[in-house]
Hints:
This protein is mainly alpha-helical. The chain has three domains: 14-150, no CATH class; 153-209, no CATH class; 210-298. The chain contains 18 helices and no strands. Helix 2 (38-48) packs antiparallel against helix 3 (54-65). The radius of gyration is 21 Å and the shape is flat. The relative contact order is 0.06.
Amino acid sequence: MTQKITLRMSAAAAPYVRPDTPGEIRLQAARGQVSLGASDMVVLLYFLTHDNDAEIKHAALKSLRDLPEAVLHEVVQLSETNGKILDVIARLHFSKLAVAEKITIHPNCSEATCDFLVGKGVQDLRGRVGMEECSSPGVGDVDEDAETADDEVINEEDEEFKSKYQLSQQLGVSEKIKMSLTGDKEWRSILIKDSNKLVSGAVVKNPRITEAEILAISKSKIQNDEIMRVICANKEWTKNYMIKKALVENTKTPLAVALRFMGTLTEKDLSGLAKSKNVSSVIATQARRVLLNKSKKS
C-alpha cells in the first residue's frame, strides 16, 4: 500500500494541485512552465508525480529528471527540504557528485537514501558506512518509474522492447540514424549497440539522452571511438566526476584526454587505478607516479 506523505506546499504552488484545477493547467505545471522558486517547484513536481492523469504524472517525472544542477544545489542546501524530496533527487541525480554529497550531510537525509548513494559510489561526507544495495528504495511511493529513473535498467524481455528490437532489424541505415537522434531510451539502448558506427554514434547526439546513459556508455566496452570523442568533448558531461572517472578507466578514451581527466581524480580513485589490471598500463603507471609525488610533498 502506498505510504501517505505529508509535505508543506506554499500558497503559490498549491493552486496547481487542487482537484478542481483544470488538467491543462496541471500539465503546464508538470512541465515546469510556471513561475515558482526552486524549492516550491520541486515540491510541486513531487506532488504531480502522484496525479491520476498519466500524462501529468510522466511530465512531472521528466521535469524532475531534467532539473538544472543549480536548482538541485539550491534545494539540497535548504535545511527545511523534506527527506522524501532529498531521496527523489538522490535517485534521479546521483551521478551529479556535488549534489549527491550535499544530500549525504543534510540533516533530513535518511539512512536508506545515504546507503543508496554510497552504493552508487558517492562519498558519505558524514562518514557513515553504506550498503552496496539499498534495501528501502523510498521513491516507489512517488511513481514506479521514478524508482529507477535515469538509472533505469531496460528490460530486454519486455514485449515492447522486443518489438522495437525486431523493428530495428528491418530499418535502413538512414532510418536508424533518424531514430538514434530522436528515439526514446529503449531505442537508444538498442541502437547504441548497432554495428554501424554512424548509427551508434548518432545516439549520443540525441538531445534527450541523459547523463546516466552517458555514464553507462562511458563505462561500457563500446567499440565506437567516435562516441568516446563526442563524450570527451562535451563540457557539460565532463563536469560530472563519475563520467570523468569512467572515461579514465575506459581503454577506448583517447589517452591524452584520459591523462588530463586523471588529474581531477581523488587519491582513493588514483589508488584504484594504480592497482587495476583493467586500465591501460600508461594510466596505471601515471596513477602510481602521481600518488608517489603526492606522498613526497606530504
